[in-house]
Amino acid sequence: MVGNGTPPVRESITDLHLFIIWSRGREKEREILEDLEREFEVLEVSDVTWTAADFSRNLTRFYGEALPSGSEKERHCGNGPFLVVVVRDPSPEYRLRSLRPGKTQVVDLRTLDAKERYRGWTGGGHRVHATLEPREFAHDLFLLFGRLPSHYAHTDRWDGGIESFNSEPVGAHGWRDLEQLLTGLELTVGHVVLTEPAGSADGRVSVAVEDPWWAAVVADGQPGVEDPWAAEHLVRVNGRSVRLELEQLSPMTEPNSTGRTWTLRLRALAIDLVSRLGSGKTGLALVYHGLAQSPGDPSREVLPPHGLAEFVQQVRALKRRYRIVPASELLHATRARRRGARLPVALTFDDDLASHVQVAAPVLRELGVPATFFLSGTANPWWWDDLQWAVDRQRLTPSDLSDIDANDVTGALQRQEGAVRRVATTIERAAPNRLREIASRLRELSADRFDFGLQRTDVRALGEAFEIGFHTVEHPLLTQLDDDALADALTSGRNRLAEESGRPIRLFAYPHGKADARVVAAARTAGYTAAFAGGGRPILGRSEALDLPRWEPPRTAGAAFELAVARTIRG
């Protein structure tokens, strides 16, 4: 975001995990703790007691499965006091795995292996639980203790003491306030949107989520666990009953007709064949931002993420059809391609997002694909993320952005298609000083937002495996800056990023994908060898190295994606 350009120094919180030794596994407690201390950095050990009468209900909320009293999982776990161990993995091994039918996820193999090892020691079943990725850790931690991962950002190794907690999961007897409830839902089901301002006269709160069933279970109202599909649930918030209405966020779907799929795929193959057999010099740079378990909604989000499953399918399709090269080699590969050879493509990622290291990097390593990450080297949240959060939480009002069309702000709050993007476009074009004021106001409105931003150690991890480019510290619209400010934006923070990533920084990506002749000339003067903009076009043999276009792929996979790539790279 726009600020003073000095990022805070924060250690990584992305490699934190917790293990639970349920009561029926505690006979092996000492052996497990000793092994955890050998394999991980143990930060904290807690002894937790849930009321036996509510144990099955708590398990249902915790695991997101319908677990009635006496279920197999409860029999395996036992309903007595259990041990929670928070650890930091000093050398995580994130890999792509399908642990459940139809669900692909990125997991830390070291915690997965440890969990299976401890389950073997305790007789099998579910007597030991472990988190496998950062969001699962954040969910478990919040429900158990009401904490966020940042609680452990500067925690030293465990001193041997064990703290006791005699309390149910957060929300079991009501929620402190609406923000605590919404945070619990967001950490559980992902994207959470208030569809209208909270605090209506009838005490109703309307929320759109990706998984209404689990949201109802976590909210723990009435009927809650007994009937998660009910139209509304009475939830205790700040000592009073609130009517919670849950609805499904609009899913991003693609027609799956077999006939249509093959028609699209054959068209893509035909276009690719013509392109490969031709003498034209074309290549394609794809640009991604965030990745999430489910794809976002481009009509209602400023910068919606690509879904993990779709991203994996996209990369696999690109690997089958094209020659994937680092961004630094794309222009040369385009110019050097011979007739009949595969067309070159490059995968690029912008902004300092935790999903780069948590999701994208493990997938890319698993599939053996190079990529380039354009970073700022700052852990600060961006103004457009704050805007999205303020809209989703109904914190924003037209008076907060007085010089922006009030109809667009109101439309964004009402989830009208395209409205939030129009607001973001207007902010993007604001004069630098005004942009700083708006960014500051949005930060105030979003101060409660927890952020899984890229940390300093994550930048080093990316630099060890992938090419790194610079994206400016403050992400300004460069065409709006005067010459001195432009020169500063192109260079300030570049050397620090090189030091943190362990790589020389010779590549640049223009913020917002925009550059003109003056900006391109300044990038050349700054010593960059290649720079990337937007435009949604292919790269040609005659393309200017400091003004290379990029294309943002659709949030779909399969034949529709393959056809979109084939058409775009052909030009």
Keyword list:
single chain, 571 residues, alpha/beta, Alpha-Beta Plaits, TIM Barrel, 4 domains, six-stranded mixed β-sheet, five-stranded mixed β-sheet, 22 strands, 19% strand, globular
So, the CATH homologous superfamily of the largest domain? Glycoside hydrolase/deacetylase
Please compute the radius of gyration using only Cα atoms: 25 Å
> In CATH terms, what is the architecture of the largest domain?
Alpha-Beta Barrel
Shape: globular
Task: Indicate the mean pLDDT.
Answer: 90
The portion of residues forming beta strands comes to: 15-25%
Q: Which regions have little confidence, pLDDT < 50, spanning 5+ residues?
A: 1-11
* Integer tally of domains: 4
Figure out the total of helices: 20
| Helix share, percent | 25-40%
Structural class: alpha/beta
Main CATH class of the largest domain: Alpha Beta
Predict the CATH topology of the largest domain: TIM Barrel
The main sheet comes to: 6 strands, mixed
Number of strands: 22
End-to-end separation:
34 Å
Q: Oligomeric form of this entry?
A: single chain
